[in-house]
Each structure stands twice: as C-alpha cells, then as structure tokens.
Amino acid sequence: MKDWIEGFQESIDLMEQNLTEEPDIEEIAGKAALSPFYFQRIFGALCGMTVGEYIRARRMTLAAQELAGTDAKVIDTALKYGYDSPDSFAKAFQRFHGITPSQAREAGAPLRSLAPLHIKISLEGGNMLDYRIVEKAPFTIVGVKRPFNSDTSYQEIPKFWDEWTAQGENRPIMGTFGVCIDTKEKDFDYWIADLYFPWEDVPEGCETRVIPGSLWAQFPCTIATLQDTNTKIWSEWLPALKGYTLAGKYDIEVYLPPEEGSQDMKVYIWIPLKKA
Fold first, then answer.
1. Is residue 114 part of a domain?
2. Is 141 strand, coil or helix?
C-alpha cells in the first residue's frame, strides 16, 4: 500500500509543479502506474473532486495570492494560469472567490484558498466490503453509448439514464449494464447495454462491443449504496489489494431484476483485474 500511495502522491506533486502548463494526464497518471481512466476515477473517490476541478481551484488560489500580494497585471496572471482572455479569467475568478480580480487587490478582500493535496490513507476498521473475484470469458454487449468527460460525468450520466428511461416501452434494450470504456485521457464512452447474442438482430440506434475475457472483482450493492460502494472500492479496497492489479480500460455496473419475494434490484460493480 505504501508504494501505491507514494505513486499517487507523486502524481499530485507533478500537477503542482506544472500548474501554469497544460496538464498531461497521461504523464500524471503514469506516476501512479495507472491509466488516465483509472487515475481519474480513483482521484475523484479519494479527493472528492475531479482532476480538472482540483487544478482549476489551485490555479485560482495562486492567482488570487499573486493579485493580492504583488503588482502583477490581471492580463498577465490570466495568461499565466491558462486563460485566453481577461474576461474568461474574471468570470472563473468570480465564480471561485465571489469577487473580481480587481477587488482582490483591496485590503481585507475575502479570498478562498485550496491547499495542495497530500494523500494519507488511515485504516479505521468496521467498514465491511463484500466482493468475490471470478473469471469470465469474453462477452458482447449491445446498447447505446454517449461520450463523457471525467470532469462532468457524475452530473451528466444520470441525465443520460433519465433520457433513456423516459422512452418507456419504446426502449430498444432493457439496460442491464452501465459500462464505462476509456477512450482518451479525460474522455470515455458510457454504454447503457444488454448482453448480445449473435443470432439476435441489433436494434435500431444500437451498437455492439466485445468486452474481453478477464478476472473481475464483483461487488454487490443496491441503487441506494452504489455511489458509496464505488467510493469505498477506489479509496479503501484498492489501496489494500494484494496479488492483483487493475486491468483493461473498463468498469461495469450490472442491474438485475429483483429476486422472487424481493422488491430491490440486484446491483453489482465489476472491476477488471489481473494477477500481479
């Protein structure tokens, strides 16, 4: 666990060293020996914000300190921290601090600050997380997909499900799976999908995708505990994992009908693994 934590801290340190540059998420994630897809999932669970939100908050913190403590010009500060114009910088600055860049120069101006992150895992006990590791052959899904960005996915994916659910009986698939598939850096495709069999027709508007065979860690949960379970997987279970590492560029939510005599849908989170 020590090596894993040290690698993740090195990723954060690299962000801090390059706050005035365009972030290279491949290089940042590489410090933790993770793909950008998994790094951003874990970062969100550990830190309570996205990588993009952290970088913007740190830039706004440093920009305010410069404006309040030096005679730096607003336009120079804007360009230094990645904004193309004083107007876009001023809007972002006001959203974060509640005042304009010019007002930040006034004595006693109220400013917000986000300190650099330092990862520290503490073992508190009492948090039981059930799971099992199983091996599955390749399988094919059929469904609808939409591209998402890690910075906004937590807000936008539920809207995707709402739109799909609103179709009612016109839905071409049941929605057994919610599948995240890494595409590039911050971007990934999210599928609402079912299991596909080759003798079946592909419904209009749908596509198919083969999910490679793998070992999978399967975590049971409920709709109500889905987000909490997801957070525990990345922030508690993964740092303590021995003998396995993350594999592939997928993670899957599985939604199964209630068993007889129950009203609760059975929900699982699947994480692909390989033996270390």
1. no
2. strand
